[in-house]
Amino acid sequence: MFGKGSLSLLEEYGGDSSDEEVPGPRVSVKRTYDSDSSYPSKRRLPVPSQFSNKNENDYVDDPLLHEGRVRSFAHERGNWPSYICIPFEAHMGLQNFLLAIKKIVPEYIELKQCNDFHISLTKTVILRYIWITPFVQSVQEYIKCFNKFMIVFGNAKVYCNEEKTRTFIGIEIKSGYDSLLKIVENLNHSLSEYKLPPFYEDPSFHMSIAWCLGDRQSELNDCLPEINSILETLKEIHNDDNWYIFVEYLLGKIGNKQFQFHLR
Asked: Which of 65, 80, 111, 131 has the fewest CB atoms within 10 Å of its CB?
C-alpha cells in the first residue's frame, strides 16, 4: 500500500592450497589468492541494477495506477488506511442522476463515479496493525449506546478535499444531523486514544457520488442549480427509491478488512 535486498548467488570459498593429485579423476584443487593476503579472493556476481539501490521500505506512488489520484499520506509498510462510515447501496434513481450530471458539467471536466457510496464519520487515518483489535473494541464501546436512526438526503453540493487535488459532487444530509454529530463526538474520543486526528470541527455530512481531478469548485458550482433541479425531478419520478438511510450499523474499513458496529 516489497522486496528484500539481493544477496550474491555465487561465492567461492578457498581451503588449503595444494598441487597434489588425489585418487580418482584428475581434479584441480587450486585456489586463487590475493597477492597481499593469506585468504582466498572472493569473486561475486554483479548485483542487478534494479536491486542495487533498493530498500525494502521504498515505495513509489504512481497516480496513473489509480486514475490520477494522489495519496494524502506516504505509503508505509504496516500502516493501514482506515475510516468509519455509513454505507449506502445505489438504486436506479441515483444511477440516472449520475448519468444526467455528466451531461451537464463542462466537457473538459472528466467526471468519474465514486467507487462506493457512504457518509464519512471520520477522516481517513492511519492505524498500525497492532492497534486494529483494540481500536475496533474501543469504537464498539463508544457507540453501543446509540439507537438506530434515519437519515434523509437533501440537495447536491460541491466539495473539495483539503489538498485541493480532487473536487466532489455530493448529496448533503437534510435530516439526521444531530445523531451524526453525537456519533462523531464519540468516535473522536476513540481516535484520540491513538493520537489520531478528529473529524472536521463543523462537519458538512454528505454522500459523495462523483469526483474529478483538481480544484473545480467554481465550474461545478455554476452547474449546481441545474443539477439540483434534475435531482428534485428524479426524486419525484423514482419515488419508490430510498432517498434516505435507516442506520442500523456503522462500517469500519481498515485496509482490506471491514467491521460492522451495530446500533441498538
From this structure: 65
